[in-house]
Amino acid sequence: MTQVTRAGRRAVGKVLPGDARRHHRAAVLQHLFDGGPRSRADLARDTGLTRVTVSDLVAELLADGIVTELGTRPGIRQGKPATMLGLAGTAPVVLALDLSGEVLRGAAVDLHGTILVSDEAPMGHGEQVVEAVLALVERLRAASPRRVLGIGIGTPGIVDAAGVVLQAPNLGWADLDLARRVKAATGLPTHVANDANLATTAESAFGAGDEAGLLLVTIGQGVGGGVLIDGRVLSGPLLSSGEIGHVVVDPEGATCGCGNRGCLETTLAVPALRRDADPAARAEVGRRLGSVLSPIVTTLGIADVVLYGPAELLDGPLLEATREALAHQTLPFVAQRVHVRTVRLEDELVLKGAAAYVRYREMGVV
Length: 366
Ligand SMILES: [Zn+2]
What we know:
By secondary structure, the protein is α/β, with parallel strands linked by helices. It has 14 helices and 16 strands. A hairpin with a 3-residue loop joins strand 12 and strand 13.
């Protein structure tokens, strides 16, 4: 799938004539997002585009309410003062949804990744979840202070680039064209991606994630994972990269939603952790997680490992046991450098990642 990546910013692709305008517009916006307020002349210098082209694109962005004129640059007295441009308070928002947790979470997120409005609804199974998504989108849309750029949805499971959920055992979905259905019902551009991949992107872009190498495990109703190497989230030829929740850790264990027995998520998912709060049981889950993580970390040479989920379940015996197991099951060189940490659910990585994904797909800005 196409992912939002920092490396993507440096990528030089062959620009088709019809795409040139969109590409140039994205370049202007990228510099305004990254560099803050600047003049038309600054933008021409930043992008390598002509002053005429920049003025033309800025006129369009002003008309669309995405950019605004902020007045003249202070402190310069000679010559004609340059008018500064910045991102407008009227810029559109993204409606972002997170299907990974115990409840369905949604938010209106601005183009900087700030959550303006949030709401939630009960989760369900199968078609109920689709209905809940559509209802929550309508509530968020009604509550949104501004025009909506599009909808971004982070869902568990294997998702293709067109937003078809190929398989999501916990939701009871197979070959569900979620993006098309939500777009048809709302009339809004809709982009769907794997929840853990979006969280991984967000932790790298907005959090403390190591852009060179990050392994992020999402712990919600199920267990997912995202792998980022050299600024890119990996999807792999099967599009299933990071799906560590369904690695079997106990062949005699409980039956999993995927049909196998003893998958990691049968003990690590939030419902299982809530069922057994005994510190010894939590430590055993942590040891198994560490055993699953160690070959991945060792193979990929990753130092930054993040567990993303409810802090009260993860911090303590589970985290300690995960660190300990990992430290003893990899090369000493790796063990001395790898760091396992938790990120709190309140950081809303899936929602922020979904918003960033829509910004990228609709505006070309990473
Ligand atoms: Zn499974």
